[in-house]
Design brief:
Blueprint: H1 3-19, E1 27-33, E2 38-42, E3 46-53, E4 55-60, E5 63-68, E6 71-75, E7 80-85, E8 91-98, E9 106-109, H2 113-125, H3 132-149, H4 155-175, H5 182-188, H6 193-204, H7 208-226, H8 231-237, H9 243-254
Antiparallel strand pairs: 1-8, 2-7, 3-6, 3-8, 4-5, 4-7, 6-9
Length: about 260
């Protein structure tokens, strides 16, 4: 089997994992290897490796790969990895870790390395624990990152589905206080309601209405925990005019009534 076929097969497998919802980030980390230095360790997770600057050789036991800006590498667990920075420049790179039962090793060009790296830097600056909106912003950035990773592989399919989902999630984050329905979501992206339901199940494993309710509940929880809002005020701020109805939904979703959070 020639090298070109191996690369194509590896990307096919990776893309299939992504479409099946199995390519879920465990975290992003930035690393620097000083010029001329080497480092060796046994890999524990699968990783997508994006070089930022400098050059290095990544040797996964007996398989070496050149790492430089404009490429991304895919590493797998249970391999002895040796990194060697080349030339007189420090080597900077960013890893995204995830769990996988597929042991893939390959390198591929990025269609737009500057945009990919810019997204990664934004992801590294995010702190999703600060508030709910930050969590959803992070989700949007990660979706954009995957869109760049796969943009030169199957661009139409990746762009269409990922961009539609990104637009829908952004629409909900802006309009959650309003009357958001399956039909209004479909009209917003000019798609059929059935396709919207399919995409939410495919990427989020949830119905659109349940995603909206969960989003509202999370924001209401933050409002109530702050101690600055009554239940009626929090309910109104997330789109429920009837506080009693909101309380029933809240208890059904959270397992306890919202008044438990009121100070």
């Amino acid at each position: 089997m020639n090298r070109r076929t191996v690369l194509k097969d590896s990307m096919d497998i990776l893309f299939e994992q992504y479409n099946q919802g199995k390519l879920s980030s465990l975290g992003f980390r930035s690393f620097t290897l000083k010029a001329g230095q080497s480092n060796s360790y046994k890999t524990m997770k699968s990783a997508i490796i994006v070089p930022v600057s400098g050059r290095a050789i990544f040797s996964f036991e007996d398989e070496p790969f050149m790492a430089k800006r404009g490429l991304f590498l895919h590493g797998c667990p249970d391999k002895m990895l040796t990194l060697s920075a080349l030339e007189n420049e420090d080597f900077h790179y960013i890893n995204m870790y995830y769990e996988s039962d597929q042991h893939l090793l390959f390198s591929r060009k990025l269609k737009n390395p500057d945009k990919t790296i810019s997204i990664l830097h934004q992801i590294l600056k995010m702190n999703p624990d600060t508030d709910i909106k930050a969590q959803y912003m992070l989700e949007g950035l990660i979706a954009g990152y995957f869109n760049e990773i796969f943009s030169d592989f199957k661009p139409e399919l990746v762009y269409n589905e990922n961009q539609i989902m990104k637009d829908l999630l952004n629409y909900i984050s802006v309009n959650y206080k309003q009357s958001v329905t399956l039909r209004s979501l479909a009209e917003y992206v000019n798609e059929k309601p059935a396709r919207i339901s399919y995409l939410f199940f495919k990427y989020k494993r949830i119905r659109p209405i349940d995603y909206l309710i969960n989003y509202r509940i999370k924001i209401a929880t933050e409002l109530l925990r702050s101690g600055d809002y009554t239940i009626s005020e929090a309910a109104c701020l997330v789109g429920y005019k009837d506080a009693c109805y909101f309380s029933r939904i809240y208890k059904r979703r959270m397992g306890f009534p919202p008044n438990r959070l009121v100070k």
